[in-house]
Write a structure and sequence with these properties.
This protein is mainly α. It has eleven helices and three strands, in the order αβααβααααβαααα. About 65% of the residues lie in helices and about 5% in strands. The chain is globular and about 55 Å long.
Length: about 270
């Protein structure tokens, strides 16, 4: 029987699912699957190397607030992705080589870069944008270039090395969560504008920072082919909505950690 579900299933397997990927032993890998990654074990090793470089730089530069947000971000990402999406709802799934590692450890790595690098970079950009210290503003270029390199270089390098070519596939069904994400984004921005007296310009700046965090992440997958199908629409949608969901809480926590003499700099009167 012909149905929209069947049409989506045929579209996915014809245009999105690339040839040569490992067989997916799950009936959930059908029409609703829209966010997917496909790579080899080499990529994990490279990603961990560059993640270590990022953390080392934060420590050497004494970016303590950014490190605090790295710990918070990793905990939240892991709770949502592994605890809720994988364990409770079953909308996150993956295939691993036999005997590679337990699922909980693999999912800890999956959340490492977005959970550690993204929140810390966002805090560095907030401080470079809203705090008056000149040194922090001048460091924005360094941290942004470093941020891009940490995510882009591993995705471009791993196809050209042969440390471990065993394939891994990772996917997430987000069809039922888009409206929730969008609603949380709007509610967060409205709260900043009307309850916290944050000016529109500052909210727009925060939105662009959030889009940059997720946009670099998605662009690295798009360019390298880690995200099968070269979905430009998915790149734009994820870049716009993914980190903007948590931007308002991140800003409020960051502002609460600031010294008292710096907090007024981000209110409506002085922004």
């Amino acid at each position: 029987r012909f149905s929209p579900r069947l049409l989506r299933y045929c579209w996915y397997n014809t245009y999105v699912r690339p040839q040569g990927d490992p067989l997916i032993q799950s009936t959930r890998m059908y029409a609703e699957q829209i966010v997917r990654r496909s790579f080899q074990v080499d990529y994990i090793y490279l990603d961990l190397i560059f993640l270590s470089l990022w953390l080392t730089a934060l420590v050497l530069k004494k970016k303590w607030r950014a490190l605090v947000f790295s710990a918070i971000g990793l905990a939240i990402y892991y709770l949502i992705d592994y605890g809720i999406w994988y364990r409770l709802r079953g909308i996150r799934d993956f295939t691993l080589p036999d005997g590679f590692c337990p699922p909980w450890l693999f999912m800890l790595w999956v959340q490492a870069t977005p959970g550690i690098v993204h929140p810390s970079w966002i805090i560095l950009m907030l401080e470079g944008t809203f705090l008056p210290k000149r040194a922090q503003k001048e460091e924005r270029l360094f941290w942004t270039l470093f941020f891009i390199g940490v995510q882009l270089i591993p995705t471009l390098m791993f196809p050209n090395i042969s440390w471990d070519d065993r394939p891994i596939a990772l996917w997430r069904d987000m069809v039922d969560n888009r409206w929730l994400f969008f609603t949380l984004f709007i509610v967060g921005d409205m709260y900043l504008l009307h309850n916290q007296n944050i000016p529109t310009r500052a909210c727009l700046q925060m939105m662009l920072i959030a889009m940059g965090a997720e946009g670099v992440f998605e662009m690295s997958f798009f360019i390298s082919g880690v995200r099968p199908g070269h979905r430009l629409d998915l790149l734009v949608l994820n870049s716009f909505i993914e980190w903007n969901v948590g931007m308002a809480p991140a800003f409020l926590i960051w502002r609460a950690l600031l010294p008292k003499d710096q907090k007024p700099f981000v209110d409506r009167k002085q922004a």
